[in-house]
């Protein structure tokens, strides 16, 4: 009898095939594992989706900036200053295709309303981008946002400013930088070349690129790292949502013969599935948020949805990195958990967290940054380009190091907790049992706070280089207008119009120009030209006749005008700039021997107009190059409309007259842009961290639902459990904030050291750390609400 | 005590979870020191009856009196205080706080009533010794067997010397040997301390440890003693 043939044992799949099989099984479990599996997958997808959406928005920033810049450049012309009679090297001759262009920007309720006056020389003059036809005199085309404002109740005073124009159309998106931009073109027949008006034959002017200084470049690097790191941390947290439930299911797999490696791969497959759904959700959320961009204006900046397009290579990187990250993080976290058959997941054999690799990460970061200190003097002198990648990588590793160190720090600290009231004991034991979830929950905010502290220090360190105060009290309601030089009659008439404006309490108008003393480079003074009444408002002048000149000394002022510019002093006023190859025009004038020395009075803005005060007959304003007529006014305090009335009067004199509200801080454009970016990014990051914590809290509570019910069954007070949960949050938050403050201050100091700058304020971290802690505490307290609901007897029913 | 001398009496209890009726006019009374087994098939409403008797769940209709006091008239805080002081609980699983040691778990009810830690743990240790699990006192629940964990739960239920112990399928997750031992220890200890025991089970073997059996079917409780008398 032939023995039955033995079943031949074939080798199973190996290597990549094994991985593929197990990952596929995990994916199948994730989508076919019933309500619990779906819930866990959905939580991961939502978390990853939020992170991916933010990453996609960040990846769209370069395209967004480029598109905005291109449209801005496409509608610009090489326009000279409004005030100075600057001659351009490439002046056009009038022709059928040329036109006159004059910038006519204004403000309305502190929002910029930019625009230009246009005057066609002939029928072929081109229309601006986004406009069908060149507006004729008395016509204007406006952006949709400006059109809405002009038709709204809020736009009443702005309507008055533009009352001489009839709106004949709106500007298409191709002619606007953003959808909510307030912009217009107005047709004119009063323009003449000079004083800000230029003749051109088309649009399109690329302003010379102002490169970022090393300080600002460093700020950009740090801001990018600081904003993106919490998102990365959040994504790694999101792929671990629902871990406990998953481990129980994996234990069942062990029961039917899966080995430990296989269960880990299956778990990775589940996380992979969640991350893939997350990618899809993120892409969907990104597209949704993109459509809403039209309705968002942050600090006068708005973006067209079509501008928000991620860089293809960054999008591809995100699509690849997120699933890989999900798999790696899952395998990494499962290394500490022994999943055994019979549904038992024993964390009993807990190993102490190892310190060496947690220290290694920031150590590598420091090692990357240290060599740069030697080059620091070069950076500071702006002569050496910054090592972008080295700084970025060093900073990122330092911040990642904080995340890696936090669980170890929490574990070490809580292991020393012994006694205390019951809520404290429950919290301490929970943290001693497994501090991982609590540390993970605050890791995002730890990175964000550490980075924010560093950025704050960096901003504070370089702020003085990029911001200047205009020296006026912003609480005062004062305005200043500058215009082309006017004759005595014109200046007087314009001043009277301003004086008659509703809400204007005092106004002074004069022609102004700086003057140099030949042979003495340090001797610069100003000449103010106005009628006697005006000059008597500027200085203590007893008697005055047209033709008089005064040397005005500011009482207690630093400048010795009285002696330095004494009667008989020769002064020269040279053109500020001239086209290449041409000589600067100039005007020489002598302070007459008859000039009298007087002391100044403060003008409506509080300034003392020291220098030379001259009546119109004493000096010919038409010969002074680059002179301006200045009006300084005080309007009724608290009456914002008074400022708009003043602007309306200015616009009726000339739409291109620019008016400033005094009392502000003037910022470098690049600095201001980075500051805006940080603000927007910080809000988004905090929102993400908040959302992530809310999900984590909900998930943890759900996993402890039954235990909460049992504790309530035998009479545990809700306050006991509430305080226990709060302590479980407070302890890691405090430790996380200590770590963040230490790391942030260290990073900030290192960055400033790179730029050879000192730390201006070591305590600047207080508001940042306080905000971070407050966000976590607020979400924890909000998390108590669902916990209250879970602490009901109904929770026992599942049994 | 209620007029008929019972410690707990329930009358006309009705409770529904959505469209599912769990109790449909159940009556029951329990005397001090009495061990009562509440039996019935799965889904018959026996656990819900226990939850109503213990004041964990409010019935939709009917009354529960404990020591002459109407539970429905008590606030949530008062019922919680009652459960802390007078009641003890043993459930089938998932009842021990995983991050506390067995000793700390057993001492928890005393800590909740304001006892000092040392005092609470000393008393808890005596109960752990009595229930033969003192050797695992410093272990966490995840480090002990199911039977040991259940004995710790019994120790926790009895440590406060309650007047009533509510046990919901206390041996449901144990093998027969361990189950027998846990029941022996639970009922012996309860009798020594004159605690009444309300024992929810579907196993006749477990119910055999009781003085009286009540069967719950379709949300109605029937006293088996009465049925035997009638027969």
UniProtKB/TrEMBL annotation, chain A:
The chain crosses the membrane at residues 37-59, 216-239, 271-293, 313-334, 355-373, 393-417, 677-698, 725-750, 762-788. It holds the Pfam family FtsX. Residues 222-338, 681-792 form the ABC3 transporter permease C-terminal domain. It comes from the Bacteria. PANTHER family: BLL1001 PROTEIN, MEMBRANE COMPONENT OF PREDICTED ABC SUPERFAMILY METABOLITE UPTAKE TRANSPORTER. InterPro entries: ABC3_permease_C, Membrane_comp_ABC_pdt. It is a multi-pass membrane protein. This is ABC transporter permease. One of its GO terms (cellular component) is plasma membrane. It is found in: Cell membrane.
Automatic annotation (TrEMBL), chain B:
The keyword Signal does not apply. InterPro entries: AAA+_ATPase, ABC_transporter-like_ATP-bd, ABC_transpr_LolD-like, MacB-like_ATP-bd, P-loop_NTPase. Transmembrane segments: none annotated. Keywords: ATP-binding, Nucleotide-binding, Transport. GO terms for molecular function: ATP binding; ATP hydrolysis activity; transmembrane transporter activity. The keyword GTP-binding does not apply. Residues 8-231 form the ABC transporter domain. GO terms for cellular component: plasma membrane. It comes from the Bacteria. This is ABC transporter ATP-binding protein. It comes from Streptomyces morookaense (Streptoverticillium morookaense).
């Amino acid at each position: 009898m032939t023995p039955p043939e033995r079943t031949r044992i074939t080798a199973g799949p190996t290597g990549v095939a094994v991985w593929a099989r197990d990952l596929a099984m995990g994916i199948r479990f994730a989508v076919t594992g019933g309500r619990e599996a779906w819930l866990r997958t959905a939580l991961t997808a939502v978390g990853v989706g939020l992170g991916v959406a933010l990453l996609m928005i960040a990846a769209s920033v370069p395209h967004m900036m480029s598109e905005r810049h291109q449209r801005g450049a496409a509608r610009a012309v090489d326009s000279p200053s409004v005030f100075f009679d600057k001659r351009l090297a490439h002046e056009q001759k009038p022709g059928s295709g040329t036109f006159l262009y004059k910038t006519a920007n204004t403000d309305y309720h502190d929002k910029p309303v930019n625009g230009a006056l246009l005057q066609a020389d002939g029928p072929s003059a081109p229309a601006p981008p986004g406009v069908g036809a060149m507006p004729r005199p008395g016509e204007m085309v406006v952006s949709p946002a400006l059109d809405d404002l002009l038709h709204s109740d809020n736009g009443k005073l702005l309507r008055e400013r533009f009352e001489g124009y009839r709106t004949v159309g709106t500007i298409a998106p191709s002619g606007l930088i953003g959808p909510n931009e307030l912009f217009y073109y107005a047709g004119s027949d009063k323009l003449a070349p000079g004083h800000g008006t230029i003749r051109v034959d088309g649009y399109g002017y690329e302003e010379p690129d102002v490169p970022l200084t090393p300080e600002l470049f460093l700020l950009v690097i740090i801001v990018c790292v600081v904003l993106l790191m919490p998102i990365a941390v959040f994504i790694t947290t999101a792929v671990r949502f629902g871990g406990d439930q998953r481990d129980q299911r994996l234990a069942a797999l062990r029961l039917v013969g899966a080995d430990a490696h296989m269960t880990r791969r299956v778990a990775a497959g589940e996380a992979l599935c969640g991350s893939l759904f997350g990618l899809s959700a993120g892409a969907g959320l990104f597209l949704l948020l993109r459509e809403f961009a039209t309705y968002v204006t942050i600090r006068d900046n708005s973006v067209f949805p079509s501008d928000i397009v991620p860089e293809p290579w960054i999008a591809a990187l995100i699509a690849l990195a997120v699933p890989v990250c999900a798999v790696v993080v899952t395998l990494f976290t499962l290394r500490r958990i022994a999943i055994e058959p019979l549904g038992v997941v024993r964390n009993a054999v807990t190993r102490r967290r190892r310190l060496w690799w947690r220290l290694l990460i920031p150590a590598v970061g420091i090692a990357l940054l240290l060599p740069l200190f030697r080059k620091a003097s070069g950076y500071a002198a702006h002569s050496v380009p910054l090592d972008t990648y080295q700084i970025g990588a060093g900073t990122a590793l330092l911040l990642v190091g904080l995340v890696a160190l936090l669980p170890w720090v929490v574990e070490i600290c809580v292991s020393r907790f012994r006694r205390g009231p019951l809520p404290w004991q429950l919290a301490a034991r929970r943290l001693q049992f497994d501090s991982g979830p609590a540390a993970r929950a605050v890791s995002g905010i730890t990175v964000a706070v550490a980075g924010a502290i560093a950025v704050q220090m960096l901003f504070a360190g370089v702020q003085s280089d990029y911001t200047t105060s205009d020296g006026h009290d912003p609480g005062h309601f004062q305005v200043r207008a500058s215009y082309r030089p006017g004759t005595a009659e014109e200046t007087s008439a314009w001043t009277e119009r301003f004086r008659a404006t509703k809400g204007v309490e005092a106004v002074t108008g004069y022609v102004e120009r700086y003057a140099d003393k030949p042979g003495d480079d340090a001797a610069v003074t100003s000449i103010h030209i106005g009628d006697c009444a005006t000059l008597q408002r500027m200085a203590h002048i007893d008697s005055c006749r047209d033709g008089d000149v005064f040397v005005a000394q500011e009482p207690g002022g630093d400048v010795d005008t009285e002696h330095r510019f004494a009667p008989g002093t020769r002064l020269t006023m040279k053109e500020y700039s001239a086209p290449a190859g041409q000589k600067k025009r100039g005007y020489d004038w002598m302070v007459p021997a008859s000039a009298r020395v007087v002391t100044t009075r403060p003008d409506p803005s509080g300034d003392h107009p020291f220098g030379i005060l001259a009546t119109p007959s004493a000096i010919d304003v038409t010969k002074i190059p680059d002179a301006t007529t200045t009006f300084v006014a005080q309007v009724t305090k608290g009456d914002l409309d008074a400022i708009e009335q003043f602007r309306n009067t200015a616009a009726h004199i000339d739409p291109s007259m620019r008016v400033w509200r005094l009392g502000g801080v003037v910022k470098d454009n690049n600095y201001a842009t980075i500051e805006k970016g940080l603000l927007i990014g910080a809000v988004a990051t905090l929102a993400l961290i908040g959302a992530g914590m809310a999900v984590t809290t909900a998930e943890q509570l759900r996993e402890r639902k039954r235990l909460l019910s049992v504790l309530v069954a035998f009479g545990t007070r809700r306050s006991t459990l509430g305080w226990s949960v709060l302590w479980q949050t407070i302890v890691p938050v405090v430790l996380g904030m200590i770590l963040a403050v230490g790391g942030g201050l260290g990073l900030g100091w290192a960055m400033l050291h790179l730029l050879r700058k000192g730390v201006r304020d070591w305590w600047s971290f207080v508001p940042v750390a306080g905000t971070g802690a407050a966000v976590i505490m607020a979400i924890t307290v909000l998390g108590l609400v669902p916990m209250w609901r879970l602490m009901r007897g109904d929770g026992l029913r599942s049994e | 005590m209620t007029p008929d001398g019972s410690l707990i009496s329930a009358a006309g209890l009705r409770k529904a979870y959505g469209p599912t009726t769990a109790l449909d006019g159940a009556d029951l009374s329990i005397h001090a020191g009495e061990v009562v087994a509440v039996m019935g098939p799965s889904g018959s409403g026996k656990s819900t009856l226990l939850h109503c008797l213990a004041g964990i769940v409010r019935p939709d209709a009917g009354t529960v009196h404990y020591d002459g006091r109407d539970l429905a008239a008590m606030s949530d805080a008062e019922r919680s205080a009652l459960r802390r002081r007078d009641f003890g609980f043993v459930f089938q699983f998932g009842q021990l706080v995983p991050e506390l040691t067995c000793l700390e778990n057993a001492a928890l009810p005393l800590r909740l009533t304001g006892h000092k830690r040392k005092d609470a743990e000393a008393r808890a240790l005596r109960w752990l010794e009595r229930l033969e699990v003192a050797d695992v006192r410093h272990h966490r629940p995840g480090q002990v067997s199911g039977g040991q964990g259940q004995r710790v739960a019994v120790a926790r239920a009895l440590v406060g010397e309650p007047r009533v112990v509510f046990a919901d399928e206390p041996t449901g997750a144990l093998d027969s040997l361990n189950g027998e031992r846990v029941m022996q220890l639970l009922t012996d200890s309860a009798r020594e301390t004159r605690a009444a025991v309300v024992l929810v089970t579907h196993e006749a073997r477990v119910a055999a440890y009781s003085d009286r059996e009540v069967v719950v079917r379709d949300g109605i409780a029937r006293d088996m003693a009465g049925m035997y008398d009638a027969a």
